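Thread title: Can someone regenerate the structure for this chain?

I was given the following input by a collaborator and told the matching structure tokens would be attached. They weren't. Posting the sequence so someone can regenerate them.
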Amino acid sequence: MYAMKYIIHSYSIWEQGPRPRQEDSIYPEQGRLCDDDRLFILCDGMGGHSAGDVASSTVCAAMSRYILEKYQDPQGPFSDDDFAAALRSAFDALDEVDNGDEKKMGTTLAFLKLHSEGCTIAHMGDSRVYHIRAGKDKDTTEILFQTTDHSLVNDLVKIGEMTPEEARHSKRKNVITRAMQPHMERRPRADIYHTQDIKPGDYFMLCSDGILEQMEDDNLKYIFSEKGGDDEHKVDVLKKVTENNRDNHSAIIVHILDVEGGSEQLSGESFTEPSENISGRLSEDNSEKSPEEFVPELPVTEDALEDDSPKSMPRYFRILRWAIICAIVVMLVVVGKSMLQRHAEGESAVEPEPAPNEVEAVREPARPVRDVELSEQEDPDAVIPDEALNTQPEVVAEDSSLSSSEQAVDDSVSMEDALPLPDADDGQDGAEEEATAVVDDEDDEDVPASDEQLAREILNKKDHQEEETDTL
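Best answer:
Regenerated them for you:
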């Protein structure tokens, strides 16, 4: 195997946009790129935190200084251990510049190192690295590799909770799940990718998320195809399509003009994930919020984010999911209990239908005794005084002193003749003359004269008149 050597030409874009300050940092710095550079770093300071510009510039300066001082040959070998040592030096530098703010400063990382064994690509957060193989047009241009964002929406897409289209338009698309911050309990490691499949005409592009705000993969394919023009034109097009972006946007474009050395047998690519679990802090680079409005998210674990199975949902979302399920169950129980209670109250409010005999009894009230007596009278139109409507049965006291001759009274003499009904105008006097016999065993003096007694008096008078007539 021969050591790989490259002839390149590089370009950079470093635009502040409408943001109050530029929080993106690049190495080599803007305007200092040269064709001998083999190390490229891009950092996007987290806009929702204080001193995002300090964090991004600190990481760029610390990593580049460590690598250039230790490795004098820019095209010499470079291992993962070398990268890990440079990353530790960047974390140490962040600890030193920590301002103690509760919302700790933070930054993303995009890293590219061309070396004798191919290239090493590493990243954290949502800053990306692309490896593009140019074709004649968009359809023949390939994106051989692009980093996978450490972002909330990307994790939701991986577990099937959100579609890629929904992720592109989500309001939470700027929430990242891995970043570099000072004094972290467990420092996150970057995802690392290796490839030796590098050919003349290939492009590498490091960019912050701001550069992709209005751009899709097909746009990138067209720009980096032969139809996209020469390199200067490609850079001008990228600047043009991003001039109205709301965020800082930066990019480094490396055009591979020629490659020397290498071996086809070893040519290929590999991807290295972090060898240990890490914990990051959900952080948000929100271009629509001022730093004062930003609230950092809860920490999650990497093993919950990297696994594609449904069980790999971040702990925060598993808790949220179960909380929602429990709330729905409680609500259904309450609603069901309320419906059962209402149903029971409705049944108790309904009166049972009366039996047929009871219905007839209600419809035909009992007729008073006096009504029956009226139906047997010869003159139904006769006026009956109120006292006569008394339903109590009349009790007639029997007088055993009556003789048999007194009892043999002429049938022509009736009770109506003996007791004519009083007029309505007679008032209380007529009512007192009514024949209402009340038997009181306790006090016979209170019993008024009955109709029978009055009849006997009249008969006695008649007998007395007949005796006088006989005597005469």
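The radius of gyration is 57 Å.
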